[in-house]
């Protein structure tokens, strides 16, 4: 089947979709009845200061939140993590009707830091109040790398995506390496409140379903209540109940063989220790410190900021690690675990001991092999974020990809319109899978870099120790890509794959193929360098 007349025009960052009726019932794409190049509807008129007005214009930031014409699509999102709330915001901005719920009884104000790369920060240009709040609270860290002996390898330096040659021409809000998870999450929730979107807390999903004939997706709550919508988004994390309705999805998570101790707490606790003060000589208000300390089969990270200290230690999995963020670990346990691999530097041990009671977790790092399908057969239920793809923390990319998911899905639904909503979710899936799968593999690349270090290569070129933040990840614009590629992806879906889709949002020159965690771990065990095994440009 060939769809001949499909136009994709862009104006003011939006696109109109027109698809010719080919007469094949299962392959008919209709105009959504709404021109998304129409005048944007302003959500709120505000008086801006001259300084902010000039700053927005200079940096390419929207002066206020603007909403596209209504699409009539009802979207129900299960899961109010970063991916879920991003999807809610962007669905509202793209004209959809949004409801969002979460299994937790209230917002979870725990966690230490989260890394957001430039491709996700682009979102903020459309949400100026939220963007300025996040910018005010972010941590512009300098990154350094050390051996466990205390010998400096490299740094301090910015993350790769902020090297001077990469900043030229970049607009919008700045991208830095670290954010307080609590402050970042609070900014997203405040933006939802400004729109009048309320999260229904305490709604645990036990089942997902769809009715293709009725054109709805649905979910069942723990109390037996059923909810329906044109599209149901499963953004409920690694343990999503949507695994029963998504074909080919591995039902079980697999241990990666690693676990992570991590903690975050007021910086005053860390600076109260004389060894910490002597080693780092840090004063709140100075540029934040971010250091990796590399060992034999493990590594740790420490950071000092104006308000928070946080640290982590990734180690081989043991029975004490669990799957809940219960901060019940004694810091002494962490030091004992570290000593199994290397002698612990006295200053690092002192830093870890400053963690107050009730601040340290030991979290199993589990993984689910990449699965190509993220939607129910009829496309009415669609996965997003961790529900669709697990990331290791060494990737520095999990939150970024969840945000990209939310932006892409909302845009695909806008372009497909209500008549093609089910196929729009499938187009979103096709646009995202290969990119995300390659991003997942980068977590293992960075893990090998820090835990199975090629010290001979590092001795010749110390800069090779830097965490990999590939250009194909951070230079991506998920919204622009969805506008550019949606027609191609929709044609691919409607033709059952007969019309090819050529994604360009993963490593240039790479020919995608399926892979598994077991395969990658065996390559690491055999001493093979993962970076050298990849075709194309992964830099």
TrEMBL record:
Q: Where is the composition biased (Polar residues)?
A: 1-40
InterPro entries (alphabetical): FAD-bd, FAD-dep_Monooxygenase_BioMet, FAD/NAD-bd_sf
What keywords is this UniProt entry annotated with? FAD, Flavoprotein, Monooxygenase, Oxidoreductase
A single Pfam family it belongs to is FAD_binding_3
Region called Disordered, residue ranges? 1-44
MF terms in GO: FAD binding; monooxygenase activity
Q: What residue stretches are annotated with the FAD-binding domain?
A: 74-422
> What cofactors does this protein use?
FAD
SUPFAM superfamilies listed in its UniProt record: FAD/NAD(P)-binding domain
Q: What family does this chain come from, according to its entry?
A: Belongs to the paxM FAD-dependent monooxygenase family.
| PANTHER family for this protein | FAD-DEPENDENT MONOOXYGENASE MDPD (PTHR13789:SF315), MONOOXYGENASE (PTHR13789)
Instruction: Write the protein's name.
Output: Fusarubin cluster-monooxygenase
């Amino acid at each position: 089947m060939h769809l001949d007349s499909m136009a994709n025009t862009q104006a003011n960052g939006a696109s109109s979709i027109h698809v010719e009726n080919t007469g094949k019932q299962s392959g008919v794409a209709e105009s959504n009845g709404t021109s998304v190049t129409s005048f944007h509807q302003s959500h709120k008129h505000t008086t801006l200061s001259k300084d902010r007005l000039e700053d927005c214009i200079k940096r390419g930031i929207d002066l206020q939140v603007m909403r596209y014409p209504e699409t009539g699509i009802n979207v129900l999102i299960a899961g109010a993590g970063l991916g879920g709330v991003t999807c809610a915001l962007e669905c509202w901005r793209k004209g959809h009707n949004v409801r969002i719920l979460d299994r937790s009884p209230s917002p979870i104000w725990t966690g230490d830091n989260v890394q957001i790369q430039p491709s996700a920060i682009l979102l903020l240009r459309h949400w100026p109040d939220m963007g300025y709040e996040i910018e005010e609270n972010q941590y512009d860290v300098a990154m350094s790398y050390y051996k466990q002996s205390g010998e400096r390898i490299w740094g301090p330096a910015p993350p790769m995506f902020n090297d001077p040659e990469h900043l030229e021409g970049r607009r919008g809000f700045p991208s830095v390496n670290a954010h307080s998870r609590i402050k970042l999450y609070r900014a997203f929730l405040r933006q939802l409140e400004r729109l009048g979107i309320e999260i229904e807390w305490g709604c645990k999903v036990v089942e997902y379903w769809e009715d293709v004939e009725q054109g709805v997706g649905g979910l069942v709550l723990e109390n037996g209540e059923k909810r329906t919508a044109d599209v149901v988004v499963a953004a409920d994390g690694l343990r999503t109940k949507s695994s029963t309705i998504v074909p080919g999805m591995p039902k079980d998570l697999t241990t990666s063989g690693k676990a992570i101790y991590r903690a975050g707490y007021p910086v005053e606790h860390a600076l109260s220790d004389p060894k910490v003060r002597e080693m780092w000589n840090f004063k709140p208000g100075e540029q934040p410190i971010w250091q990796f300390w590399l060992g034999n089969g493990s590594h740790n990270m420490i950071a000092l900021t104006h308000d928070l200290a946080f640290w982590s230690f990734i180690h081989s999995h043991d029975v004490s690690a669990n799957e809940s963020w219960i901060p019940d670990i004694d810091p002494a346990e962490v030091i004992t675990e570290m000593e199994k691999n290397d002698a612990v530097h006295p200053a690092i041990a002192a830093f870890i001991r400053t963690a107050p009671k009730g601040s340290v977790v030991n979290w199993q790092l589990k993984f689910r092999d990449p699965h190509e399908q993220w939607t129910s057969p009829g496309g009415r239920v669609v996965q997003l974020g961790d529900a669709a793809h697990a990331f290791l923390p060494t990737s520095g990319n999990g939150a970024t990809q969840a945000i990209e998911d939310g932006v892409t899905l909302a845009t695909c639904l806008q372009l497909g319109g209500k008549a093609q909503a089910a196929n729009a979710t499938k187009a979103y899936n096709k646009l995202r899978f290969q990119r995300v799968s390659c991003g997942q593999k980068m977590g293992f690349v960075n893990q090998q870099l820090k835990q199975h270090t090629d010290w001979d290569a590092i001795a010749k070129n110390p800069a090779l120790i830097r965490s990999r933040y590939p250009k194909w990840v951070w230079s991506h614009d998920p919204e622009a890509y969805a506008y550019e590629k949606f027609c191609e992806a929709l044609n691919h879906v409607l033709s059952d794959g007969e019309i090819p889709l050529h994604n360009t949002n993963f490593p240039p020159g790479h020919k995608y193929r399926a892979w598994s965690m077991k395969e990658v771990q065996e390559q690491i065990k055999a001493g093979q360098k993962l970076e050298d095994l990849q075709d194309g440009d992964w830099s």
